[in-house]
Amino acid sequence: MTAVLRLDGVEVRYGSTTALAGVDLTVDAGERVAVVGPSGAGKSTLLALANGSVTPTAGSVQVFGVPAGQLHGRALRRLRARVGTVHQHLELVDQLRVVHNVNAGRLSRWPAWRAAWSLARPQGLPEVLEALTRVGLADRVFDRTDQLSGGQQQRVAVARLLVQRPDLVLADEPASALDPLLADRVLGLLAEPAADRGGALVASLHDPALALRHCTRVVGLVEGRVELDAPAGRLTLGDLADFYGAPR
Ligand SMILES: Nc1ncnc2c1ncn2[C@@H]1O[C@H](COP(=O)(O)OP(=O)(O)OP(=O)(O)O)[C@@H](O)[C@H]1O
């Protein structure tokens, strides 16, 4: 079986900073992986490798069996359509209405004329409304995105991913601005491709309880190295507190 994501001996350096050092990690279909670790441990860098926005200084990264970073043209677009990211900084266009930001999730599947036409007359509205309903924002579809709160904008980014329908979901702190009920709802949505379509979820999560509730596996990074890799079912909140070195 081809792994959804495979990192072999990966190192990433930004100038004199080593963000990841000798990381080996294989994520198989159906897995929901929580990436945990202190601030600066390399979690975002790991996710960025998986969507090709960062290339390794050493080692190799394969996504669905294909070397990421070595693709061009149609093959690259095909891979990008299968990988959906909820970025830590969301990457929404503030001045656009919510509908346009959600539709951005499927631009790679649309011809250029349809994408351009959609700015004047939004295309595929039923699917956009369905995605927004699932994140609890159906009533904000035509609002300007910068009029939404931080947590609402985070849910727009999740709705954008839902209309994309990716197989591999990469989520960088996707619930950081959400209340506990919404956080659970959003994690459930992000886990669907892993549960239903043979995809996978890799999510950076600072909340250990969310990680244990929604993920099948926990990978812990410390200073760019994998220091913990265990099935979520074998870990307790106390284990994760120990991992972070928190007093219990
Ligand atoms: N573009 C960059 N240029 C220089 N250094 C960077 C860059 N991106 C990340 N780093 C450094 O790489 C290391 C890992 O950063 P990364 O963002 O992957 O950590 P993180 O675990 O996601 O942190 P956080 O939990 O605070 O988001 C840090 O020391 C960071 O300062």
TrEMBL record:
Residues 5-248 form the ABC transporter domain. It comes from Modestobacter versicolor. The lineage of its organism: Bacteria, Bacillati, Actinomycetota, Actinomycetes, Geodermatophilales. One of its GO terms (cellular component) is plasma membrane. Keywords: ATP-binding, Nucleotide-binding. This is Phosphonate ABC transporter ATP-binding protein. The keyword Nucleotide-binding applies. Transmembrane segments: none annotated. Signal peptide: none annotated. SUPFAM superfamilies: P-loop containing nucleoside triphosphate hydrolases. One of its GO terms (molecular function) is transmembrane transporter activity.
